What does this fold into?
Amino acid sequence: MKIRNLIFLLIILLAIFTMLIAVAELPPYGSPDNPVHNMVTERYINKALEETGVNNIVTAIVLDYRAYDTLFETIVLFTAAIAVYVTLKKAKGSEGGE
Amino acid sequence: MRDFVLKRVVAVIIPFISLYGFYVILHGAISPGGSFAGGIIVALSVIAFATIFGLDRAKEKLPEKILVWTDSYGTLWYVLMGLVGIVKGVPFLSNRLAGINLGVPGTLSAGGLIALIGIGVGIRVASTMITLFFTMMEEEK
It folds into this structure.
């Protein structure tokens, strides 16, 4: 039992070590050379008005560029509503007697 | 919550909250906010009504039939708007590609399908919140 726990501890430490190495390789936070700041951002800022006709860039992204994402977000909301409705709604005939 | 002052104040304020919600939904293209925020505000007006005046009166104003209807067709409306692209022979949910007039930027007509999709999302969010609230409040009784 003791040896088994020791092996587990070793495995966990190894996993933590691997993750820490991965974190150390991340680019510095907020640096302009980060891979995050690529042409996608530039395109949204420069061309959103021309391509979607909308002033509000957030709306342009949410409802036009990423319309699929929003579609499935609404489906998630639909599923949540249906799930709560099905679990909590009392059946019509079952009032009184549990 | 049977306080007279509370009831009167809420009765005056609720139409304006509701109206503001619809305003935020419809102006999602030209001002901060959008369909998600607007839908929540619309739902909030109904939730406030149900909290102050009781669930039964709220259900009189907003029958379950309508809630089931909006629950079902909000997303369907979104998909229908997406099918416009397929009918025109371009990918699903395309806006400018489908040859839709994008309107004048900065006015209510801006964005072509975006405004229509936004209405669908707003209805969807509002009806979800109201359904959750009504169902949970009913459970508590």
